[in-house]
Amino acid sequence: MIQFEADGKTIEARDGETILGALRREGVNVPTLCHMEGLSPTGACRLCVVEVEGAPGLVPSCSFPASAGMKVKTRTPRVLEARKTIVELLLSNHPDDCLYCARSGKCDLQTLARDLGVRQRTYRGARNDRPLDISSPSITRDPDKCVLCGRCVRVCEEIQGVAAIDFIGRGSKTTVATAFDRGLNVSSCVNCGQCILVCPTGALTEHSNVEAVVAALADPSKTVVVQHAPSVSVQLAEEFGIKAGLDVDGKMVAAFRRMGFARVFDTSFTADLTIMEEASELAHRVATGGVLPMMTSCSPGWIKFVETFYPDFMPNLSSCKSPQQMMGAIIKGFWAPNQKLDPANVISVSIMPCTAKKFEAERPEMAPNHVPDVDYVLTTRELGELIRRFGLDLMALESETADTPFGERTTAGKIFGASGGVMEAAVRTAHFLLTGKELENLEIRPLRGAKGIKELRAKIGDLEVGAAVVSGLGNARQLLEQLKAGRKDLHFIEVMTCPGGCINGGGQPLGADPEAAKARMQALYKIDRSEAVRVSHKNTEVKRLYDDFLGRPLGEKSHKLLHTHYAKRETVI
Amino acid sequence: MSTMDLEAILKKHAGAKRDALIPILQEVQEAQGYLSREAVTRIGRHLNLPASKIFGVATFYNQFRFTPKGKYHVMLCRGTACHVKGSQKLLDSAVKLLKLKPGETSRDKLFSLEIVACMGACGLGPVVNLNGEFHAAVSSRKFAKIVEDCRQKELEHAQN
To answer: Residues of A with catalytic annotation?
Structure first.
């Protein structure tokens, strides 16, 4: 530990720690724009400048290491003026259309301009007038709103290991773009949306489907049904200003009904179904000497990642569709005919913490006879927008329960929303399937928590199982490289695209702090603790679906409706 | 450039790290005339660098191009001396005449246009270099004649 002085007060810093790191711990608020906790510092925006006694100029605190005896001043007139000027210069070529901007109210640039006292346009620069990139079904890019902070570039490369985008060009012509400046849709982008979460402005937003859903709800010839992913109910309240970690499942169901959705189904139901199919697939692979380790297929960003970067591992991916697409297939392929409805007149909407799900729903193999199983995917953010649009006060609504038959879920399906949840649910059911007995302690601690790579070695009956749980594609890349190098002790691997799993998905509420993901994770485990049915194989409606329609796991109907295939992507990577 | 040339260049840089990127890009462009998508991807695999990063580095410098040159490659000087002698007007008329923006190649692959900063012939401005041949004091009319000569040559070539 070293000591230095900040604004006349002595504070401590760890060896090698930056000035900013030490100041933040002491509660000194230094504004930043390009800085991201956990990503390499670049000192690009220089908003974090401070005065250091003896230094010739102002010093960027985010990338300058603290040293013993250093005297730092964080709020002198010179510092405040410099910060204000930086924001004024950033605004000199900004479109200034806050009123119409999707980011308004959640925009760091807007907040900084307000906090630093920018009240008029001081500089007027030439506008760039670059075209919008609307090529991706998941992410829309508006280069004119980009302030070149590089957070998206770093999260894409350093956290996700994808590096679909980088700084292109030089000087005032610099822009963030893909290789050869082509659309995101033909780039190596996996649609995870982590770039949207870190973007400080409206330069990156999800491709919105709100208007389409509003139109469908107003169309009397359509029956609009909705499914919602496990993690949405523990994220949604944040859209309405509530602290992270509150489960509003019942209120959300009530809101769906008020808005005119004809049926409210729970994606956790098909998460339970996924466990039945996937556990059977794993058992089948083990018994027949199939390709191992098997890897989960719930996370569409991960799927595109494998198809793009590691096509050799496609046979390892479980052939199970994701819970979203299983629900879609059951709605259009079983429920609609049962209700004497034409699948083309049923609009199936899904609410996801995810932007990649929008891409997944548009995959051609997810639209038998050109009728998509899932018509529109809304992120948790878009659901918040929809609820506000309909003038509903979410927190004032009385809780309601989901519709049968696909509203019933076990808590095993619910914990799919956190990294490790799929594996935990699978181990619970695999234990029962292989030994005929329930697992004594259903909570499997090593699979929980925010760590990027978690491993479990367990004996289930006579079978010695090696399992790994990975979240964040950079971590997935590490594990795949180990497998490539010959690692053989793993049977089953769960991969979630986003760090921490769906509770930290690219479709979650904006502006959440790093603790929010943990609080949401805890909320899911609290649900798991507090309910009676905690294993997928005890979901009575899943059993009934098999009895009435599907037959058995991996059966012919299952194969047709619930399983899929993958294809190598010829993309510039 | 055939794949062979590319592989030969990469073989020369066996075991290279990312700091070898620019020399490799230069050699590939020298052999190929431009940096193709295929080449960028292949170089990326060789150096373990994403294509977006390579494209980012390559677009930082003026020397790299991403489309093949035309059969007649026009380099137009926009250095200070040529500017004083009216190279902006010349550029405007060249863009209009060739229907090309700087950095582009015509669809028939006949012409490509490139802006350079100085060719070291400041006394002769505005200077145009066509396939290595210098043309001095080029006016818009003179440029039109140069282009017309190229087209004429192509026509004769086609008739023979």
So the answer is: 278, 281, 298, 318, 357, 360, 365, 502
Confidence of residue A462 (pLDDT cuts 50, 70, 90): confident
Please report which residue ranges of A244-340 form alpha helices under DSSP H: 249-259, 267-288, 300-309, 323-330, 336-338
Contact of A167 with chain B, judged by CB distance below 8 Å, is answered with: yes
What residue spans in chain B does CATH classification 3.40.30.10 cover?
A: 72-159
Question: Sheet harboring A492-496: ordered strands across?
Answer: A294-295, A492-496, A463-471, A453-460
Interface test mutation site (partner B, options A133, A180, A181, A187, max chain B beta carbons within 10 A): A180
| ipTM (interface pTM) | 0.90
Q: How far apart are CA A322 and CA A297, in angstroms?
A: 6
Q: Which two tokens stand for residue A289?
A: 């000497």
**A466: pLDDT confidence band, cut at 50, 70 and 90?**
very high
Test mutation, B21, B52, B55, B65, chain A, max A CBs within 10 A: B52
Contact B55 A180 (CB under 8 A): yes
The residues near A504 (Cβ < 8 Å, ≥ 6 apart) are A498, A517, A520
Give the residue ranges of DSSP H helices in A135-266.
Answer: 151-154, 194-198, 210-217, 249-259
Task: For domain B3-60, give the CATH number.
Answer: 1.10.10
Asked if A368 contacts A228 with a C-beta cutoff of 8 angstroms, the reply is no
CA angle at A197 for the pair A191 and A203, rounded to the nearest 5°: 80
Instruction: Find the residue in A nearest to B54 (Cα).
Output: A179
Q: Which residues of B touch A170 (CB under 8 A)?
A: 59-61
Q: Does domain B72-159 have CATH number 3.40.30.10?
A: yes
CA A426/CA B33 separation, integer angstroms: 56
Residue B2 has pLDDT above 70, yes or no: no
Determine the pLDDT at residue A572.
Answer: 82
The encoded tokens of residue A454 equal 């978690």
A180/B59 touch (CB, cutoff 8 Å), yes or no: no
Which residues does chain A have within 8 Å of residue B58's beta carbon, measured at their own beta carbons?
none
Residues of B within 8 A of A181 (CB-CB) are 55
Angle of the B87-98 helix axis to the B140-159 helix axis, nearest 10: 30
Tokens of A553: 């796991």
| Residues forming CATH 1.10.10 domain(s) in chain B | 3-60
Own/partner pairs for A451-458, CB < 8 Å, 24+ apart? A452/A499, A453/A478, A453/A479, A454/A419, A454/A420, A456/A423, A456/A427, A458/A427
Domains, chain A, ordered by start? 2-75 (3.10.20.740), 91-206 (3.30.70.20), 221-562 (3.40.950.10)
Residues of B near A (Cβ–Cβ under 8 Å) read 37, 40-41, 44, 50-56, 59-61, 66
